[in-house]
Description:
The structure holds two protein chains of two kinds.
Chain A: E1 3-7, H1 8-11, H2 13-20, E2 31-35, E3 52-56, E4 71-75, E5 90-93, E6 109-112, E7 125-131, E8 145-150, E9 166-169, E10 180-183, H3 187-200, E11 210-214
Parallel strand pairs in A: 1-2, 2-3, 3-4, 4-5, 5-6, 6-7, 7-8, 8-9
Antiparallel strand pairs in A: 9-11, 10-11
Chain B: E1 3-9, H1 18-27, E2 36-42, E3 51-57, H2 64-75, E4 79-84, E5 87-92, H3 96-106, E6 110-116, E7 119-125, H4 128-134, E8 144-150, E9 165-168, E10 171-179, H5 182-193, H6 202-215, H7 220-230, E11 233-241, E12 244-249, E13 258-261, E14 265-269, E15 285-287, E16 295-298
Antiparallel strand pairs in B: 1-8, 1-14, 2-7, 2-8, 3-5, 3-6, 4-5, 9-10, 10-11, 11-12, 12-16, 13-14, 13-15
Amino acid sequence: MTVETIDLDAAGVRALNRRLQGREGPVAGRHFIVTNAKGRHALAAGLTERVNVRIRGHVGYYCAGMNRLADVTVEGNAGTGVAENLMSGAVRVTGDASQSAGASGRGGLLVVEGSASARCGITMKGIDIVVGGSIGHMSAFMAQAGRLVVCGDAGAYLGDSIYEAEIFVRGRVESLGADCVEKELSAEDASGLEALLAEAGMDGDAARFRRYGSARQLYNFRIDNAAAY
Amino acid sequence: MCGIVGLYLKNPALRPHLGRLFAPMMGEMTERGPDSAGFAVYREDGGRERAKVTICSSAPGYDWAGLAERAGCELGVEAAVEPASNHAVLSAATDSATLRDWVEAGHPELSVTSSGAALEIYKDVGLPADVLERFGVSQMAGSHMIGHTRMATESAVTTEGAHPFNTGDDLCLVHNGSLSNHHRLRDWLRDRQGVRFRTDNDTEVAAGYLTWRIGEGASIAEALEAGIRDLDGFYTFAVGTRDGFSVLRDPIACKPAVMAENDDWVAMASEFRALARLPDVEAASVWEPEPGRVYSWGGGA
Lengths: 229, 301
């Protein structure tokens, strides 16, 4: 296996992303190491090929945003909006993630080994997010589909105005948002969660999690209101 | 938008290098605030015996030596002046209120940006790199600095509207965000509590609020705790006091902040990239400050 190392101090963000996106030659199946991240924004954004990328150090905003197929690991902390609009593939952060991690993601897997701050999984649309630590307030706000798994605690207003997404929390939930309720954790739910935790490489006892989802009581769930549009 | 940065040295051996460590932090925040920049530096503390005020002149070639001479004569004390670009630090063997009042009463052409024993504030319109160069920041020594790069939203792009704001001795504040109740709070602080304001800027109101609380006997941490209740809006604040440094984000936490700390220093910035060149940052503890929680160093915190 050959690994190509890209030093961001020398190459810059634009050249890095062009290379990883395959616009400077074929990249499918290749492995890359990115050094000197230094909090730069939009690293490894817009990837569409099956590449493996390891970024050394803390990254700035929107790292691995819009990713399709690629496997991106951040060895450090990630700034706002890591893996936002993830389509497929996998993104892993070995440290903490700032707010809006996995925002509006449509598929794939985001793993945050540390904690994620406010608005984790906001308006998620199919992504799976697994957080080893805790998450901040307003997480999974308007979440439409996908799964948010939290091994630690969840901040205030969890799952406010949630649609069909599922939330699993092992620790304490500070408060639930509007229309978000606790639901039964069936054997089927637990086995699905077990598989997701295993895929994320997390050591979690699925039976210890609580499951949350939509009570479907808000305005938009009432068929009487359908004619209003 | 705006960018804010702060660096507080825990290891006194680093003090000669404060400006050299701080300047790249501010420069890195240019994209968050390209229209003006300002910074506060705490250095050469004159103690109770000697006060200093930082003064800005909009007219080029101001006769600073003449100002110091008049201050010495009229106040009957020894006075000295140290010019830096369109600013100067006037120091005298008196208290800071006397010195500030003397400058403001007789010199409407000048604006006072700070007063205290250790604090100096420099600010100007222009790109942060140019402002840093103008004031020779890289050569500055001291114990702590906070800075701001501004993208104006609530008031005009002027030197006076740039941060940091100082309303009481050795206290200064930089702010990323905007306050929504600053009009009424300014009126109340001015009319009921006698706090003096010099601009229409919302951040100056927050600085005035903290000054008032501290005047009532609160510590800076207690004043900030009370601010969570009384200040309405979006904010990440970095606050400097004579020997302390504090950070607070509002409970909604729309405005970013990241902190890093090791045995030698503690630093905060709007984004990690501003901290990325600090010595040994790779091994430092790096975290996002929690919403609505006051973080303080030094100052008996």
